[in-house]
Amino acid sequence: MIAGSGGSLMVAGDDEFLFKEEGPEAPVAATAAVSPPAWLILIVDDDPEVHAMTRLVMKKFTYRGRPVEFLSAFSAEEALEILRHDPGIAMILLDVVMETDDAGLRLVPRIRDELGNSQVRIILRTGQPGQAPEDDVIHGYDINDYKAKTELTAQKLGTATVAALRSYEHITELMRSRQGMERIIDASSNLVTLRAIDRFAEAVLRELARVLDVAADGLVCVPRGAARSDAQILAAQGRHADSVGLPLGHSVDPALAFKVMEVLRARNHHFDDQDAILWLRTADGRDAVACLHIGRPLDGLERKLMAVMAAKIAIGFDNLHLYEQVKRSHKAAVIALAALAEYKDPDGGGDHGLRLSRLVTEIALALRQQEGWSRIIDDEFLDQITMGAMLYDIGMVGVPDSVIRKDSRLDDDERHQMELHCERGAAILEKASRLVEGSNYLSFGAAIARAHHERWDGSGYPLGLAGNDIPPAARIVAVADVYDALTHRRSWRDAVPLAEALKTIGNGAGTQFDPAVVAAFFQVRQARGRTR
Q1: Tens digit of pLDDT for each residue in 106-159?
Q2: Which end of the chain has the lower number of beta carbons within 10 A, N or C?
Q3: CA 243 and chain centroid, separation
Q4: Is 12 helix (H, G, I), strand (E, B) or coil?
């Protein structure tokens, strides 16, 4: 029952309270073209009149230009179910006495602990304050306000709502900021492990989208040419997925191309209602741009997070460049060492190491398709065997020239001198590799140098290893080395016919060579055709 007239309304019943509309109504503002999202407020009370009256007196309430939208629950369990499926609720007007005398009080820890919802603001309302003393409730429960229904005029309810929404806004902003920074930290960790520029650029798009919680739809590009009048697309996803490697100006909408190039020219981020375009400033001036299509304007916090992320990405580009420089230095050292080993070989022709490296890489790629080998031959393995294989005979620098250049069979002592090259080469490379942490070209080459004369049946040297105890890289090099040696002239013999060399390799499967490697070798031969 509702009683009263004019400026005050009374709801009669067990929970009797007064809503008093104090002062004239504010004029209705013109409806904006796009209405801002409403604040969600959940009313939890077993009296339908309370729901109706709250809606009535708060119908014109706004905070920061946003209206309120009310959801209704008539029991604690119903409220819990609504909260489970709608975590965006900012505030709860919660009755104490519902299906039980303390149903409202028991709901509070379930919201905080069971649902893990610490940001929603809870205003406890009761018509029977004596049943739940204010001091006990405030100290014993994680609530934000406690009001007797009899003291809740429309103005006081509005004041309490403003305070609650302001608090919710601040807490939500802090949580979003923390979550955004956590995502940036995770993204930075993911990016720092990538060592290829194309994979790094792809990951940039993925991680930017994850920070903003949007689809990965965009591109990463770098200036093109000395005039920097266009850009080249390094990575692209979504609508630009087919544009990788192409010039920006010929691959995307002219308006987008203009915005991207303007970011490169102005060296500043650009945000609008559709796109976030980040300028990625690198230490040596090799600027880049990441563009993500977001389809909505970013708020202030999101823009700050994007700026932080851009700085992290730029550092990643710098680190990638430094890594590439170091890697090139390592490759140069490997090539120099390989050339030193070939200097002792009168029959190598100066390109034996490169020939072997190419064949070894092709065999490894073919093996990768065989069952059980894909987990062994990853991208890092391929990179390291390509360079490490060039060092397999580095130990030959310690073999006397009289042994290397002998044009007849070696005697036992000379053969022993020759066989020492495996351990000698491994020792040289291992000593040098200790200056670099982790697996590297030198340590990988050391394993090959030591074991490339081991045999599948265990009759090889220097350790007599057999089967899978022989390092996979050494098994691959063993096949490639014998094939290259047979098909090229040596000081004591001419190159053997191709058919005879292939027969030798095939007959060695299961005795001298790993059968799987031999199968991969013939797969490579078939792919090459009839050429050597």
Answers
A1: 999 999 999 989 889 999 888 765 555 666 677 778 888 888 777 777 888 889
A2: N
A3: 21
A4: coil
Which candidate, 18, 22, 17, places its Cα nearest to that of 7? 22
pTM assigned to the model: 0.51
Burial pattern 368-394, b for ≥16 Cβ within 10 A else e, equals beeeebeeebeeebebbbbbbbbbbbb
The amino acid at residue 108 is V
Query: Could you give the domains of the chain?
Result: 2-24+35-175 (3.40.50.2300), 193-321 (3.30.450.40), 344-528 (1.10.3210.10)
Q: For residue 501, how many other CB atoms are within 10 A of its CB?
A: 19
CA torsion 411→413→419→420, rounded to 10°?
-160
Cis bond leading into 223, ω under 30°? no
CB 137 within 8 A of CB 146: yes
Between CA 269 and CA 279, with CA 275 as vertex, the angle to 5 degrees is 25
CA–CA separation, 394 vs 404, rounded Å? 13
Closest by CA to 446, choosing from 436, 456, 455, is 436
H or E, element range at 3 = strand 2-3
Residue type, 224: R
**Contacts for 522 with CB less than 8 Å, ≥ 6 apart:** 502, 505, 506
Instruction: Look up residue 437 and give its two tokens.
Output: 């942490």
